[in-house]
Structure formats: structure tokens, C-alpha cells
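User: Here's a chain of 467 residues. Predict its fold as C-alpha cells.
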Amino acid sequence: MKRFLIKINRRIPGKKLLVVILLMIVAAGIAADLLIKPLFLKRDKPAAPGKSGSMNIITGIVESREISETIETPGEIVFKEKVNISSRVNGRLARVYSREGQIIKKGELIAEIERLPLEITLKQQKSELDIAKKGFELAEARYCDALKGVEIKLKSIMKAKTELYDKKVSYENMNLILKNKTELFNAGGISQTELEGIKTQHTTLNAKYELAKADYEIQQVGYREHDIAAEGLKVPASEREKLELFKRINTKIERAEVEAARSRVRQAESGLLSTELLIRESYLRSPISGVIAVRNMEAGEMVREDSVIATVIDISRVFISMNLNEKDVHRIRKGQNVRFSADALSGKMFDGVVETITPLLDTKSRTIEVRAAVSNPVRNLLPGMFSRAVINTGNMVKGILIPKTSVMRREDGREEVFVVKNGILIAQNISTGSETGEEILVTEGLAEGDRIVIKGVNLAYQGMKLQ
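Assistant: Prediction complete.
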């Protein structure tokens, strides 16, 4: 880092030796005061006293030195989070608990919607649910009976099969008897009457056999292997698996009734749950901790789903929003420090950290928004406040720093310093940047080697001569 020395100039008029000695003592006191001045200026000797009182004017030679690169930009304080409190329930606003400016916590009650219509609906839905549950119980009972009926039916089929077999055996025995008796009758061994009796028995047993056969076939309907195949199912080899499939095939109606009853129960439960949810939603609570920024409605007003009752903002941690020129964005990274002042707070300084760099460029202004997070525990930084920010990029660059006391700020906004040229003070327009302690960065108007007035600016004037 380069250091500067101050050369002290005097303008000594032709006076007596005693006066000269006194002036030298005064100059020595001024030199002692200069020891605390920054080292970026070469210190000069104070000017000699004259009619204008220029003995208190101190000049210094400007030199550049390495300083931290910064970006100055205006900004605006914006909230971290904003929530519009609205209702999912249509109805009349029964009560509003919040007021503008009130600090609230997450989950705190904001307002209530009248619940009487919902409570009436809830009672009706509870009754409908009870009826639906009874219907479901009845359908399940019928289904259980149908399953039992399948087992009974299978046993009935087994019985019919046994009876068919018995009738078949009796009929086949009678066939043999009739054949033998016919041969015996032809041989003259029995009478016509006896043969006719045998034929009558044969006919009776044949009829019983056919009836048993028909009954067995009827009993089997729905319990045959091709009935399983007709349902698009594979016929299993296991009798147990066949039984399960027969239960499935022959209880379709009862199972459908059970599913329908279950759906009615679910529908009633869903309606009941929806109403209970709406009743809970009639209590409007804040989803975040923050401050009531706006209260839009009063008790007694009708609320619709799109009605905003109040607005809550979280300002315990705010952002300073800055729009940077596209040429400066490459120097910005997340985590960089931002120091800024708020005009509304008398220039009080705050610190933040770059948190968000918007990836989209505003094509009109050719800027990109950068946001820095700032802790705001006392909530004195309010959204909308104008701020002046300085972003420290972390890079070191050469620049010129001069004391703030050397800068003159005019009413029209211009900034000037007095530059010494050929022993004469000339007011020079300058442009300044960031401030560091008692120093200010000069961005335009001065060059290394220029001599400027660093003390006694209020005593200097345009055209003053210095030796």
C-alpha cells in the first residue's frame, strides 16, 4: 500500500522577526494535529497567514492506493414473506381479532366465519353416515349368507349326485330283471300279468332315474368347470381352489351390494370430513409469524373464496432489493457482504449478505435484481424504504481516497475540492463513491499527483494564492 506525505507550505509576508517566530509556533501545533490524518496524502506545510487567514489551510498531494472494490447502488427494502389471509368458506365474517400493525405469531387466530349453516349440515351428514353404515352391515350379512349358501349348495349337489347314482343302479337292475322276465315269459314261465307288473316297475324306476339326472344337472349350474372357464378364469386342479372360485362366481351380486354399500359409507364420510374441515377453516389463522400489514374486512361482511381479509408480512428478516447493471453482475456472488443505509432512518448503517441473484435480465433497464438478506429483529426496516447500498466484491483495485472534510457539496448536488495549480486554489468538480470511515473514494475529477486542500476548506476561496 502506498503512503503519502504532506508538504507544508507557508506564505510569509515581510513582517518583523517576532511575528515570524509566533507563526512558527502556531505551525508546529498544526503539524502535530496532522499526525492522525490518513497516509494516502503527502502532507504539505501549512500556508503562511495572510489577509484571508490562510495559515490554517493544509494541502496534500493525492496518490492512489489499493482499496477494496465496491459497487454502489440504490435499493429498496422488501419483505421476506407475504401472506394474504383468505377463507375457503363462503359466509358472513363473525369476528376479526387482528388490527393493522399488530405483531402476531404463527397459528394465531385472525378472524372467524359464522359456522351455524355448517354445523346444521354436519348433523345431517352424521345421520346419513349412520344410515350408510347400517346399509353396509346389512349388505355384509347378505354376503356372508350367500357364502354359506354356496357351501350348502355344494352339499346339495353331492346329495343329488348320490341320489342319481342310487336311481341309476336301481334302474339298471330293473333293466336286467325286465330282460330276464321277458325271456321267461317267452318260454311260458310267467304270465302276462306278471310281465306287465315288471314293466310298470321298470318304467317307474326309469322316470325316477331321469328326474334324479335332471335334478343333478340343475343343481350343478354355476358349479361346473366350464362355468369357471366362462368367467375367463383358469380351472384349478385343487378342489379347495375350485371351491373358492365357485364362491366368487356365485356371490357376485352380494359382493357388488357390499361394494355399493361401502361406497355410500365412504361418500358419507367424505362429506362429513369436508364439512368438519370447513368448520376448522372457519377459524382463520396466520400461517406465518409477522405483522398485520393490511386489514381489508370488518365483522358482518360477506366472505367469498377470493376475499382477502388481511395481509401478513414477515419483516423479522427482510431483503434489500438492488437492480445492478448487467456489466456489474459478473462481480456479484452469493455470500458477499452488503452495507447500506436507509434514508428514513437518518442514514443508519445496516449489514446484509447476498442471497439471491435473479437469473433473468430486465430487457428494458438492462439490469438484474440482486437480493441481500438482512436481520431485522427490532423491525425498524420497513418494506418500501429507500436505501443506498455498497456491495464489497472482495477484489482489490487501485483508487484515490481523500478526507471527507476536503469535499464541498453544493446545493445543486455538485461535489468539489480545491486543487492547487501554480499556487492558486481552483475549485474542481469531482465524483465520489463509497465511504470508509473518515475517507471517501474519488471516482472522477482527480489524478495521482494533484495537490488539494485537505483542511481549512471553509477558509479557502476560488483564486486564493498559496506559496
